[in-house]
Amino acid sequence: MTSTLPPTTTATGRRAERPGRERPDERGSLALLAHQIRYEQLSFWRNPQSMVFTFVLPIVIISVFGAVFAGSEGQDFFFGMSGLQYYTPTIAAVSVLGACYGQLAIVLAMRRQTGVLKRLHATPLPAWVYFAGLLVHCVVVSVVDVALVIGIGRLYGVPWPADWAALALTLVLGAASFCALGVGVASLIRNSEAAPAVVQFIQFPLVFISGSYFPIHSEVMNNIAGVLPVKPFNDAMLAPFAHDAGFQWKELAVLAAWGVIGALIAVRSFRWDPRPE
After folding, report:
1. pTM of the entire predicted model
2. What pLDDT, on the 0 to 100 scale, is given for residue 19?
3. Which of 96, 136, 260, 276 is the S-S candidate for 142 at Cβ 3.0 to 4.6 Å?
4. Which residue ranges are recorded for the region named Disordered (predicted)?
5. pLDDT at 243
6. How far is Cα 157 from Cα 243, in angstroms, rounded to an integer?
7. Helix (H/G/I), strand (E/B), else coil: 113
8. What is the spatial distance between Cα 2 and Cα 48, in angstroms, rounded to a whole number?
């Protein structure tokens, strides 16, 4: 006498039946990316303190500079430009640096320390979708920041950029490069408490030696800063505003190289789990 036995369900079969563990197709990945971008945007806009420091600080700085340099003519100290003509693109560049490098490195360090990244890594969300969502979010924030700074500068008489395409490419490439550097630095930070100090320790010297807050006339200092990421970004942002110039390919190449360096560090060193104390 033969008996009919129910089919055996193996562990492999059970895993295959769980839709949550399936790899998303291309259309599903795009939907996940859109969802991740929306999540990052909502998290940012629902944090008033983050918004204030991201947007209000550059507006306050450029407004103060506008009141100080309003009506001034071109000066040798500013390489033939007026004070506000010089500071509008450099303050815009600093705002991009802060949004894409500083805030991102601190946020990732905090998310790792609190276990958010560990839980996220256990989900079916592909890593590239997560980081692409962060990148698009940072680009959106940077565009808003730069638009606000340019708008305030225009109110004080600073002309519109001569080449919008060059400005757009510089902005996107700069945001991507600084995001990569932010992820790379976050990979090296041991705990979230140290994140602000590590970020500022790197950012402040770069900002000052790169001429963001005052022009640097030392040839030696300019040569040193020229191979670092901030000064090439400043120069590429300055060109469409101040010199009626377009694409600064040399500066953009240096910026892209630093983005590649940051990405390589991130790929080799990024950790999803908090480091044990």
Report:
1. 0.84
2. 47
3. 96
4. 1-25
5. 66
6. 16
7. helix
8. 71
